[in-house]
Amino acid sequence: MRANPNIVVTGTPGVGKTTHCETLAERTGLRHLSVNQVVKDKGCHEGWDEEYQSWIVDEDKLLDALEDEVATGGFIIDWHACDLFPERWVDLVVVLRVDTSTLYDRLKARKYPEKKLQENLDSEIMDVLLQEARDSYDENIVVELTSNTTDEMDSNVDRIEAWIKQWKKDNPSGGDNDDGTN
Ligand code: ADP
Ligand code: MG
């Protein structure tokens, strides 16, 4: 039994995952888990893809690296995929969405190579991450939120914070240890 929930924040690169996770971590005390960082730091990859300017992720290694810690709960997981994590680890999946023109501007500002930029725009237009979330988890734990403006982000963070409070009420841990280890 976890004392704190695990929340996956997912979506196409540029939707605002990291910004949401950092704000949520500050506000709630849950830990921001940047899966990108774990891939890099713990070498969960098979090298660097020059064309896409990203790591070629080794999912088995990544799962092994995350398993023990994440199972204890209390993580806000920041990753542009979500089918990797077993259902038993995950209490809420937030899929962030943005308008195509906004995403274009954000990815352009990041100087994404043209092919990578176009593929990510297509992925957003075709609801790829939303579909992946719905295919991987119970529909009741998947929420889709828009992240075009800072106002939308503020309201998303408020909603998720309220959800965490409710989760804690519904899942009393029976201990006063709030680091998820009891
Ligand atoms: P991701 O982690 O999904 O790739 P980031 O959190 O790094 O996305 O956000 C990408 C860029 O978009 C950043 O410059 C960030 O400041 C901006 N951004 C993210 N979410 C919003 C939002 N809701 N409103 C305005 N700007 C945003
Ligand atoms: Mg990010």
UniProtKB/TrEMBL annotation:
<dbReference type="GO" id="GO:0004017">
    <property type="term" value="F:AMP kinase activity"/>
</dbReference>
<keyword id="KW-0963">Cytoplasm</keyword>
<comment type="function">
    <text>Broad-specificity nucleoside monophosphate (NMP) kinase that catalyzes the reversible transfer of the terminal phosphate group between nucleoside triphosphates and monophosphates. Has also ATPase activity. Involved in the late cytoplasmic maturation steps of the 40S ribosomal particles, specifically 18S rRNA maturation. While NMP activity is not required for ribosome maturation, ATPase activity is. Associates transiently with small ribosomal subunit protein uS11. ATP hydrolysis breaks the interaction with uS11.</text>
</comment>
<feature type="binding site">
    <location>
        <position position="19"/>
    </location>
    <ligand>
        <name>ATP</name>
    </ligand>
</feature>
<feature type="binding site">
    <location>
        <position position="14"/>
    </location>
    <ligand>
        <name>ATP</name>
    </ligand>
</feature>
<protein>
    <recommendedName>
        <fullName>Adenylate kinase isoenzyme 6 homolog</fullName>
        <ecNumber>2.7.4.3</ecNumber>
    </recommendedName>
</protein>
<dbReference type="GO" id="GO:0016887">
    <property type="term" value="F:ATP hydrolysis activity"/>
</dbReference>
<keyword id="KW-0690">Ribosome biogenesis</keyword>
<dbReference type="GO" id="GO:0005524">
    <property type="term" value="F:ATP binding"/>
</dbReference>
<feature type="binding site">
    <location>
        <position position="110"/>
    </location>
    <ligand>
        <name>ATP</name>
    </ligand>
</feature>
<keyword id="KW-0539">Nucleus</keyword>
<keyword id="KW-0547">Nucleotide-binding</keyword>
<keyword id="KW-0808">Transferase</keyword>
<feature type="region of interest" description="NMPbind">
    <location>
        <begin position="34"/>
        <end position="57"/>
    </location>
</feature>
<keyword id="KW-0418">Kinase</keyword>
<dbReference type="GO" id="GO:0005634">
    <property type="term" value="C:nucleus"/>
</dbReference>
<dbReference type="GO" id="GO:0006364">
    <property type="term" value="P:rRNA processing"/>
</dbReference>
<dbReference type="InterPro" id="IPR027417">
    <property type="entry name" value="P-loop_NTPase"/>
</dbReference>
<feature type="binding site">
    <location>
        <position position="16"/>
    </location>
    <ligand>
        <name>ATP</name>
    </ligand>
</feature>
<comment type="subunit">
    <text>Interacts with small ribosomal subunit protein uS11. Not a structural component of 43S pre-ribosomes, but transiently interacts with them by binding to uS11.</text>
</comment>
<keyword id="KW-0698">rRNA processing</keyword>
<feature type="region of interest" description="LID">
    <location>
        <begin position="109"/>
        <end position="119"/>
    </location>
</feature>
<feature type="binding site">
    <location>
        <position position="17"/>
    </location>
    <ligand>
        <name>ATP</name>
    </ligand>
</feature>
<comment type="similarity">
    <text>Belongs to the adenylate kinase family. AK6 subfamily.</text>
</comment>
<dbReference type="GO" id="GO:0042274">
    <property type="term" value="P:ribosomal small subunit biogenesis"/>
</dbReference>
<dbReference type="InterPro" id="IPR020618">
    <property type="entry name" value="Adenyl_kinase_AK6"/>
</dbReference>
<dbReference type="GO" id="GO:0005737">
    <property type="term" value="C:cytoplasm"/>
</dbReference>
<feature type="binding site">
    <location>
        <position position="18"/>
    </location>
    <ligand>
        <name>ATP</name>
    </ligand>
</feature>
<keyword id="KW-0067">ATP-binding</keyword>
<dbReference type="Pfam" id="PF13238">
    <property type="entry name" value="AAA_18"/>
</dbReference>
